[in-house]
Structures are given as C-alpha cells and as structure tokens.
Amino acid sequence: MIFIRKHPQGIVFKVFVQPRSSKNKIVGAHGDAIKVNVTAPPVGGAANQMCIKFLAKQLATPPRLLEIISGHNGRSKKILLRSDQASASEHELKHFRQKIDNLIEN
Questions:
Q1: What pTM does this model have?
Q2: Which of 7, 15, 63, 65 lies 20 to 30 A from 84 at CA?
C-alpha cells in the first residue's frame, strides 16, 4: 500500500524517482511509494523539478501546491500536497488515495 498520510499542511505521500528515463510516466508502485520515471537528469535539481511538474499534471493540481519535503538528493522522496484547510480532512485523504490508486493502475 502506498504511503499516504495526513500532515498539518495537507497530505504527504512517497515517490521513488527514476531519472534519465525515455519518457515521463508513472510506472506503478515501488514498495510503499509511487514509482515515477522522468526524462530529466539528476543534476541541479532538474529531476526534482520535472517530478513536481509531472505529478501536478497527473494529479490535476497546480505545481505550487506540491513540495518535496525530504529526499532532495535521493530517489526516494516525500512530497507534500498542500491543502486549503489547516489540515487535510478524511474526505480529502480518501479522495487523494483513490486518485493515486487510479494513476498506478493505468
């Protein structure tokens, strides 16, 4: 099961990034993380930036609402999806979990 948790500022989830891929895509699950392939190299934060932009597009959310909160220099990352409220509600958490499941299945 993918790591998805409430956070005081929204929802946190885990991502495993594979840089220098031939195509930007969500491959599936990698342990408790979403495996994301990005075409950018892991140099100067390019893969991190591309990961955020790609995930924002897939999740239909503005990139400004996504932030890498840990794992800046590694492949395993925790990403914060900021919520409008002070903390994510149970409904938001359930809805986000469904979105992630749909992305992994496709």
A1: 0.91
A2: 15
Closest CA to 37 of 46, 45, 50: 50
Q: Domains of the chain, with CATH numbers?
A: 4-105 (3.30.1200.10)
- Rounded distance between C-alpha atoms, residue 49 and residue 89, angstroms: 27
pLDDT in tens, 84-97: 665 667 888 888 88
CA angle, corner 71, sides to 70 and 72, nearest 5? 100
Q: Which 8-state DSSP code applies to residue 5?
A: E
- Euclidean distance between CA atoms 2 and 79, whole angstroms: 13
Whole-angstrom Cα distance, residue 52 to residue 12?
13
Q: Which alpha helices (H) appear in the chain, and where do they start and end?
A: 46-59, 90-105
